[in-house]
Design brief:
CATH topology of the domain at 33-44 and 284-365: conserved putative lor/sdh protein from methanococcus maripaludis s2 fold
Order of helices and strands: HEEEEEEEHHEEEEEEEEEEEEEEEE
Largest sheet: 7 strands, antiparallel
Radius of gyration: 45 Å
CATH architecture of the domain at 33-44 and 284-365: Beta Barrel
Number of strands: 23
Distance between the termini: 54 Å
Structural class: alpha+beta
Strand content: 35-45%
Shape: elongated
């Protein structure tokens, strides 16, 4: 009886050992690699390029007196707002008053001469009609009359200029804006055309930038541009391309101007800006947008490949693709790909063509 009992324990031990070996064999079988993946669905949209620019006033001009003189008053300082026609500065008016008085006297003198010439001409005409004077004497009287009339015209012009110069001793704002700069001091002698103030318009800012020659044909007058301002915490507004220079400037770039629809609060002339241009390319609507980690570079070829997952066989197929563009941290790729196909998005350096894998399920780890 003890023999059978012993045999029973031996057989049981063998059976247990076989089960453990079978389990160990099953555990030793290599598990399928689980891959992170994505389904191809997002086609490449409009390409984006960011260009640096600078804020300038829509209207900016230097203003000064049109005549020479000594500045006796500067009525505005830098930063002051001014209205159209507002008095900004004054020259000493006394020299202009003296020139005006002299011009008035010249007109009076010329007018007196003209009156005398008219009387003499009238007399000479009557005498000529009666034959009492020669034709030469009559012609002399007529020439004197014309000279006197011309002299009055010249004197009157000088009087008009003197009156205008007296008015021009006051410098007025040509448009509403803000004083950006002052170039002179009180009691300084200035010449006509010399800058006294620089004035800029308010609330009508624009952005000046330069577009590379590779982008200039993607932009036209009226193109919409998104403008952001790093100094204002990235505040963004919409702008419109208002001017495009026909000739290149520095570094083969074309100067452009973008008019702002509405300036954000705190915007000042001279601040930096960032212009975001969106435009179509040959890849728009054709290329797929994938993460950089989905590509396996092919050394020395300038190409790359992706691994497409076949759900029916649970295997990977390596396909060659071309990178058409880089957008942020994603790539636009073109190749023998179809919407809805599944590609691996991580660990591609450890994958190979024909490899059997499974799709990674994050929920299974929970």
């Amino acid at each position: 009886m003890s023999f059978f009992r012993h045999l029973f324990f031996v057989l049981a031990a063998l059976a247990l050992s076989a089960c453990e070996q079978k389990q160990a064999f099953q555990e030793a079988k290599p598990a399928l690699r689980a891959i992170k993946y994505m389904a191809l669905d997002q086609r490449a949209g409009l390409q984006q390029r960011r260009i640096a620019g600078v804020v300038t006033a829509a209207i900016s001009t230097n203003v000064g007196f049109e005549i020479n003189g000594q500045v006796i008053e500067l009525l505005r300082k830098v930063g002051d707002s001014v209205e159209t026609g507002e008095l900004l500065a004054r020259l000493d008016p006394e020299p202009s008053r003296l020139r005006l008085a002299r011009a008035e006297n010249s007109v009076a003198q010329a007018q007196a001469t003209l009156d005398d010439a008219r009387k003499k001409f009238a007399q000479q005409r009557k005498l000529r009609q009666r034959g009492y004077v020669t034709q030469a004497e009559f012609d002399t009287a007529e020439a004197a009359l014309k000279n006197a009339e011309g002299a009055v015209g010249v004197a009157q012009s000088q009087l008009d200029l003197a009156r205008r110069d007296l008015v021009k001793t006051g410098l007025k704002a040509p448009f509403a804006g803000v004083i950006a700069r002052r170039e002179v001091e009180v009691f300084q002698e200035v010449t006509g055309g010399q800058t006294i103030y620089a004035i800029q318009s308010e609330g009508e800012d624009k952005i000046e930038a330069s577009l590379p020659e590779t982008l200039i044909n993607t932009v036209s007058l009226g193109s919409i541009v998104e403008v952001s301002f790093p100094p204002l915490g990235g505040a963004a507004v919409q702008g419109v391309v208002d001017e495009i220079a026909p000739l290149t400037g520095a570094a083969n770039a074309y100067p452009i101007e973008v008019r702002l629809d509405q300036a954000p609060p705190g915007l000042r002339s001279g601040m930096s800006a960032e212009l975001l241009f969106r435009f179509e390319t040959q890849t728009t609507g054709k290329a797929f947008l994938v993460p950089m980690t989905a590509l396996k570079p092919k050394a020395g070829t300038g190409e790359a490949s992706v691994f497409v997952f076949d759900p029916s066989s649970e295997t990977l197929t390596e396909r060659t693709v071309t990178v058409a563009n880089v957008e942020n941290n994603s790539l636009e790729i073109i190749g023998a790909l179809k919407a809805g196909e599944i590609i691996a998005t991580a660990g591609v350096s450890f994958l190979h063509d024909g490899m059997k894998v499974t799709l990674f399920n994050a929920k299974s780890l929970q």
